[in-house]
Amino acid sequence: MIATGASLGETLAALVGVIEADIAGTRASVLLLDEEGRRLRHIVAPALPEALRRLIDGFEIGPAAASCGTAAYRGESVIVEDTETDPLWSPYREVARAHELRACWSTPIFDRNRAVLGTFAIYLRVPGRPAQRHLHTIKMATHTAAIAITRDREIRTLRDSERSIRGILEGMMIGFVALDHDWRFTYVNAKAAEILGREAASLVGRKYLEVFPEAEGSPFELAYRKVMAERVTMHTEYYFPPWDRWFEQRVDPTLDGFSIFFQDTTERRLQLQKIEHLARVYAVLSGINALMVRECDRESLFREACRIAVEQGGFRMAWIGIVDPNVIKIVPVASAGIEAQHLAGLKELFSSDMGTVLSNTMVAQAIKEKKAIVSNDVQNDPKILLLKKYTDPGVRSLAVLPLIVADETIGVLTLYASQIEFFEEEGLKLLTELAGDISFAIDHIAKQAQLDYLAYYDVLTGLANRSLFLERVAQYLRSAASGSYKVAVALIDLERFKNINDSLGRAAGDALLKQVAEWLTCSLGDANLTARVGADHFAVVIPVVEKEGSVVALLHKQIESLLNHPLQLSDGVFRIAFKCGIALYPDDGTDAEALLRNSETALRKAKVTGDRYLLYTKAMTASVADKLTLENQLRRAIENEEFVLHYQPKINIGSGKLVSAEALIRWNDPLTGLVPPGCFIPVLEETGLIYEVGRWALHKAIEDYLRWRATNLPAVRIAVNVSPLQLRHRDFVNEIGQVIGINTHAAAGLELEITESLIMEDVMHSIVSLKAIRAMGVSIAIDDFGTGFSSLSYLSRLPVDTLKIDRSFVLDMTLSQEGLALVSTIITLAHALKLKVVAEGVETEEQLRLLRILNCNEMQGFLFSKPLPSDSFETRFLASPLAG
User: Fold this and answer.
1) Best CA proximity match to 638, nearest among 692, 708, 581
2) Edge-first strand listing for the sheet containing 317-324
């Protein structure tokens, strides 16, 4: 069109027509910048109301000027999916509503020097964003518009412009023809020739009704006559009986006659029913995937999955059956949409011999073959047994989907539809995926239960572990706070246990611990009152202490007879002594941690004094004056820059290469030398100084990382620990942004290590903060994983990259099968969530060997290197072949 001398307006109108025809339900326009480059002027907008064109004409561009003004100002495409919510349209929402503008995609038009000429705008009446095919068409149309505009301004060659237009028309996925005033074909693109079943050359020059006499009097002819007479655009879709096909078309008047964009929509019509079916399956898939995050027990999962299949997916009936391994039969456990008599028929069927996995039913076949079994015409299918007893007469199609965990079929999901031939190939793939998701959820719930048990209970004795005990004590403290009584926490140490363990062996030691645990549970009358909190330490809580002086008497009454209780070990009878430290609420602490800690202090004192029972006193701990002195020293240390970072390498277990390092803070006291963190970190946290020191550590780590890069050393990522006060601080996210803002490479060199327990204190706040930090390019690691009792539903939502296995688990891994199982479970879980796993505290070759077998990704610990000063770390690792 450009090559034939068409005006700029006609050329752009054709391009607008291309877009509006190719992208259903759209209106398009082309706006050009004025000479000053400040305002947009309408050139072409045939489908826009005149009132809207007047409003847009002269629109000033800017950084937030709706879609077109912003695209022209920024020089980049602006895709607004919904004008109701996008801030760019905030000042113009009333205009958008008045003219049904719910989405607007605007693309800048550039000249050959990348100067903005104007914009190509596409408006939709519904929210949405362009598909890839549409983007390609828009890109081609925008490019052609630029050619046309530049030609108008610079008198570009007509041949290049004509080739560009024809390229778009020939490459379009819809047909395009142009006819003159006498209805002779003047142009036919390749797609039009394909749809019409004629050679393009055989049509050009011939009249429409001469070629297609069967169209005379049809809605198509009437539409063309109206366009020619009234010079209006028409968008129609008609059925053409002579060809038994549907056609959608857009007819536009032109100077020479009229043009038609059209496509055969017969297949689309036939696909509508298929799309409706798939939409129902998608609804079920989406609903059940959301359900997997919420539900944490199998019964609820099964019940809700069936309900969603019926209510959201529109299936007539659904039920789930589980294979009972004891009788090798299928047991229906959940259903929806099944009337009582049909459910009774199901249960009757599967309680009979036909209910075994060895029968020839569809259910048994799905279990044995581990694949979906379908009947798309159940009323006439001989595979359907006893149909009238357990199936609604309205059922026409049936699918049995196996639920497979660890390559074993553990049950089936059975779906019923009211339409014949409902379960076609594409929908069945989605349903198979759905069954896989349910299977994953079943496995996930089982592993969650196993992990929960390992996290809260001592595997050897079955008693609560330290964490669960503290939770239970906290509950008792809340009750005591509203009453007039006290709560006692006692810590019991078994004397000479190590001697027994060393002389008789570990099996005898384990047997002793089990017998003591059983005796304590029996003596106290409630397993919730005791716990194993250490190798040979048991904790006891007395929920109600009326008088302080009675607590020793109460404990003596409950546990003194343990001294005379015979313990059977290695064909011998033993008796064991103990020491007991006691702390009282609220005198010796107002929280569970403090009470247990102070009872431990009392126990240590009892070992020195020889007392069997000893109550805690404040004199047993360091004085407040000592703590104040240390606080003042730490404040001076901050002022004098006495803190330093030591780096401990993290090694890839598979390659043995250095992959990153953890920054560990040390205090270089001028008087005493290096002070380990355990001696001053608690005081920093208690006084709030940790925020300032933590900020220094972040800056220092980034400084070292950038220095390594600048000196061409292998710049490995540095992990920095985050304290509770830092994460809770309202400016923490901004602080991270400032730290990494000094250099574009800084984010790549930083990883934040945050303890699991800290994250779980306020998990929703943690998720928001960590997402913001991770969006900056900073990696996130969960430290001490396994000690914080995080829910797997939350874990799957946490924006983290790495799990660090707590050193206590690494130690236990070589001491017991239970410890090894726990580490294996954590690694499997992390890999399932696509997370990297780092084991810390690796000190022996045996630990490393087991971690390698378990496919742990990385390790750190004294086996490889202790934390080193920066210069030693650089010399030993960054300048050596280990740096990978």
Assistant:
1) 692
2) 329-336, 317-324, 408-417, 397-405, 373-375
CB atoms within 10 A of CB 542: 20
- Alpha-carbon Rg for the chain, nearest whole angstrom, is 38
Q: Would you say the C-alpha torsion 862, 866, 872, 878 has a positive or negative sign?
A: positive
**DSSP for 688-750?**
THHHHHHHHHHHHHHHHHHHHHHTT----EEEEE--HHHHHSTTHHHHHHHHHTT-TTTGGGE
Contact 414, 267 (CB under 8 A): no
**Gap between the Cα atoms of 65 and 201, Å rounded:** 48
Cα separation, 341 vs 389, in Å, equals 8
Contacts of 225 (CB under 8 A, 6+ apart): none
Which CA distances in Å does 766 have to 550, 720, 729, 758? 44, 17, 11, 9
Question: Which amino acid is residue 46, in one-letter code?
Answer: P
Q: Which tokens is 330 given?
A: 């299928």
End-to-end CA distance of the chain: give it in Å, rounded: 60
Spatial distance between the Cα atoms of 56 and 118, rounded to a whole number of angstroms: 13
Q: What are 791-821's pLDDT values in tens digits?
A: 566 677 788 999 999 888 899 888 888 889 8
Q: C-alpha distances in angstroms, 127 versus 86, 93, 100, 122, 391?
A: 11, 14, 11, 12, 42
Is residue 257 helix, strand or coil? strand
Which residues are CB-neighbours of 117 under 8 A, at least 6 positions away? 32, 33, 109, 110, 111, 146, 149, 150
- 149's CB contacts (< 8 A; 6+ apart) are 8, 12, 32, 109, 111, 117, 118
Q: 7, 34, 27: which is closest to 161 by C-alpha?
A: 7
Q: Strands 779-785 and 802-805: what pairing? A: parallel
Whole-model pTM above 0.85? no
DSSP string, 388-408: HHHS-TT--EEEEEEEEETTE
- 394: phi then psi, degrees, rounded to nearest 5: -75, -5
- Output phi, psi for 348, to 5 deg: -65, -45
pLDDT, tens digit (0-9, with 9 covering 90-100), for 452-509: 666 778 888 888 888 889 988 998 888 888 777 889 999 999 887 777 776 778 888 8
pLDDT at 193 over 80: yes
| Separation CA 299–CA 301 (nearest Å) | 5
Instruction: Pick the closest to residue 697 from 750, 766, 757 (CA basis).
Output: 750
Q: Which residues touch 337 (CB under 8 Å, ≥6 apart)? A: 306, 310, 315, 316, 317, 318, 416
Question: Encoding tokens for residue 572?
Answer: 């011998």
Residues in contact with 877: Cβ distance below 8 Å, sequence separation at least 6, in sequence order: 649, 658, 661, 865, 883
Q: Which two tokens stand for residue 348?
A: 């009757």
pLDDT, tens digit (0-9, with 9 covering 90-100), for 395-448: 878 888 888 887 888 788 888 888 777 777 777 777 777 777 777 777 777 776
Alpha carbon 138 to its chain's center: 33
- Do the Cβ atoms of 552 and 488 come closer than 8 Å? no
Q: Residue 186: helix, strand or coil by DSSP?
A: strand
The dihedral formed by the CA atoms of 764, 765, 771 and 777, expressed in degrees to the nearest 10? -150
